[in-house]
Amino acid sequence: MKRIVSLVIAFLAISAMLGAQTKVMSHRGYYAHPGSFENTLTSLRGAQQLGVEGVELDVHLSTDDSLVILHGPKIAGSDYPDVQKLDYKTIRSCTLPNGDKVPTLREYFTQAKKTVALMLFLELKSHPTKERETTLAEKVVALCDEMNMYDQVTFISFSEHLCDEILRLRKGTKVIPISSSKAYTTEELLAKGYAGVSYHMGVVMNRTHLLDEAHEAGLQTVLWPVNSYDLADFAMRHHVDYVSSDEPQAMLNLMSGIRELKWKQTKKLIVFDLDGTLTQHKQPLTDANRAVLDTLRQRYEIIMAGGGNCKRIYNQMGQYPITILGNYGMEESQVIDGEFKMVREETSPVDRKFFDKKTAELRKKYGYTAYKGDSNEYHQSGMVTFALLGTKADPADKLVFDPDKIRRRAMFPEMSEIFKDYSVFIGGTTSFDITPKQYNKYDAVMRYAAEHGYVKDQILFVGDDFTDGGNDSQIRLGGMDYIRIDDYTRLPEKMRFMF
Known about the structure:
Blueprint: H1 2-6, H2 8-12, E1 23-27, H3 41-50, E2 54-61, E3 67-69, H4 88-93, H5 105-112, E4 119-124, H6 130-147, E5 153-157, H7 160-169, E6 175-179, H8 186-192, E7 196-200, H9 201-204, H10 209-216, E8 220-224, H11 229-237, E9 242-245, H12 248-266, E10 269-272, H13 287-296, E11 301-305, H14 310-316, E12 323-326, E13 331-336, E14 339-345, H15 352-366, E15 376-378, E16 384-387, H16 395-401, H17 406-418, E17 422-427, E18 431-436, H18 441-451, E19 459-463, H19 473-477, E20 482-484, H20 491-495
Parallel strand pairs: 1-2, 1-9, 2-4, 4-5, 5-6, 6-7, 7-8, 8-9, 10-11, 10-19, 11-12, 19-20
Antiparallel strand pairs: 2-3, 12-13, 13-14, 15-16, 16-18, 17-18
Helix pairs in contact: 3-5, 6-7
């Protein structure tokens, strides 16, 4: 691990071709510390505290059809050689080397939902017959339906039958086959409906075109196992989306160091989200974060890109002199000679009857029939905000309503389907923002960049919600470099490397 950290500087010179950010997946959780063990709730909590962006876990089916998490097949610390030949009561009677019990998938999901940005790479373990594998797929899909886990789960398996069964049961789900020998063609992956492919490093080390072709087809790539500098080097140079590592802390340190050094040299435009990133929701800009902006603007151009309108953002920031892209790019304001001026205000017609009808149906279905003020806020630009607690809800009620966004994530798939001709974002603390398709933060920033002579590699976005449905999600999906802020009070330390 010391060698990994010491080589960060040397690696910068050969990292010029870095593309989309390679993310760290913690293999079987973060168990490489005292008191932990692989695939336990303790190792999951460790990964959550560490801040990795993905966790791999292994799920088996017991003889009485319970879903349990274990690499297996042997239960460590016991005399049982095969977990798939045991009933749940027997499995639960075992104690793992760190004192944990073998967790159920329900327990694992419950803990994982506390970190909504964490992607679970759920490996469906091969079973003796196709019938048992089908039962496993059915049970896992039923639990994901019940707990609304699809935004947080990517299904992976060495068994193509299991992969295909998941897609049969729920078309469009993120499914990735794992390969330790087979080289998939992009045509095969696309024809199957797979979201990508997970390769052992031995498959692609001398066949890097497999990664290039997958990326060109819009497919995700995963590389495993990545526990050394050399493999991290390889993964980042070839734009691998996720590396699965047994040393996640070392990988995070390595990749963060590389990015920070590279970004400080190459970035020219820094774009900030507001609520949750620079401030608490609709609260004034703090002195500490104002100082961050003051320092950064001496070296870079800085602008804002928000879901709110420009005037609201400007006033919330204490009239800080900054260019603002508001309403997901429908508006733009600048401060010229000390005065706030709107330089662009695009509008789109809104069918209010349609929105009122559909949001009323959603309120009835999900139980949000009591609210203060209006149900929807119709912005002058044409953006619509569907406020679950109403447009005049008490600020204190809004802050405690859905802090982890679980309630709104449960509604998001249906919102996206109902308003499929629009872009739908989980915005603010209690609401959804709905805009015409062409308006989102990625397209807004890229439009500004083109107008001012920047290319994507020169841009860094700073936001708080890049998960699917989050109002920064299009930044991630567009492949723009970004920094995720979990706590706006920690912004100064998160951005200090750019000073």
